[in-house]
Amino acid sequence: MLTKINILFNKYREYLKYYVVNKPFTRFLPVNPLHDDLYIVSYPKSGTTWLNFIMANVHLKMSNREQKVNFYNIHDFIPDIMQTRYLKTNIMAFPGHRVIKSHADMNPLYTKIIYLIRDPRDVMVSYFWFLKNLGSWNEDLHHLIHSPTNGIEAWCRHVEGWIEKTPATSHLFSIRYEDMRSDTFKVLTKIYTLLGHEIPGEVLNQAIELSSFENMKKLEAEYKNSGDFRFPEFKFVRKGKSGDYLTEISEEDLKFINEKASRWLALFNYSF
C-alpha cells in the first residue's frame, strides 16, 4: 500500500514539476497537443498568411476536397493558435497532421517548426500600416520602430528566441519570405520534401495561383464587402513587395534598425 502511495506521489510531483516549468508556454499550445503538430511561426507581417493560403490550397487538393480558401474560413484549415487553443484533432486527410499558425515567442513545446523570416525593415513598415489601419497604433512609424513591444527590438528577440533557443530535441526549418517571393514553387517543394511528401507540380502551381496577391486582394475585398466590416480602412493584403522600406523609413531610423538587427541581417543575407 505504501509503495502505491509513493508511486502516485512521485507521479503527482513530476506532473507539478512539468506544469510549473511549462505553464508560461501553454498559453499558445492547443489544449490537446499532438506529437506531430507542425507550427508555421513568424513575427507578425512576415508573410505567414500568404504561406498558409498556399498550404491550405495544397492540402485541399491533395485531400480531394472541392472547397475555396478565403479570409473567412482559412483557420478551418490552418488554425491560428493566437486566436484559439481548441483545435480539432483531424482537419484534413492530407498531410495527415495539423498545421498551426503562430506568432508566439520561442516555445519549447513546439517540436516541429517552419520559421518564416522577412527583412525586418519591410516588417516594420507593414506592421505599422497593419496596426494603424486596425486602429491599434496612433503614433508614427518612427515611434513603432523604437517601441520595445512592437519595434525592431521585439523583432530581434523573436528571431533570437527561435533561432538560438529552440531545444535541440525540436526540429526547426527556416525560410526567407524574399525567397518565397522570387521562387515560390522551389520553396514549397523544399517544405513538402522536408515533410516527406512529393506534391505534383500542377497541384503546387494551382495552389500558388489561387494564393497570388491579386487573388488574395480579391478575396479580401469579397470578405469585407460581405457584411458590416468594422474597419473599412483595414487591408491585410497591402503590397507584399520587398524593399518598400526604402521610401518609408528615414535614414536615422534605418541606421537604428541596422545597428539593432545587424547580426540577423547578416545571418539571413540581408544587405545593410
Short key terms for the protein model shown above:
Rossmann fold, 272 residues, single chain, 4-stranded parallel sheet, alpha/beta
Please count the beta strands (DSSP E, at least 2 residues each). 4
Order of strands, main sheet, comes to: 2-1-3-4
Percentage of residues in strands: 5-15%
Gross geometry: globular
Quaternary status: single chain
Domain module count: 1
Looking at the overall shape, the CATH architecture is 3-Layer(aba) Sandwich
Helical amount: 40-55%
User: What do we call the CATH homologous superfamily?
Assistant: P-loop containing nucleotide triphosphate hydrolases
Distance between the termini: 69 Å
What pattern of helices and strands is seen along the backbone? HEHHEEHHHEHHHHHHH
CA-based gyration radius = 20 Å
Q: Please summarize the sheet with the most strands.
A: 4 strands, parallel
CATH domain class name: Alpha Beta
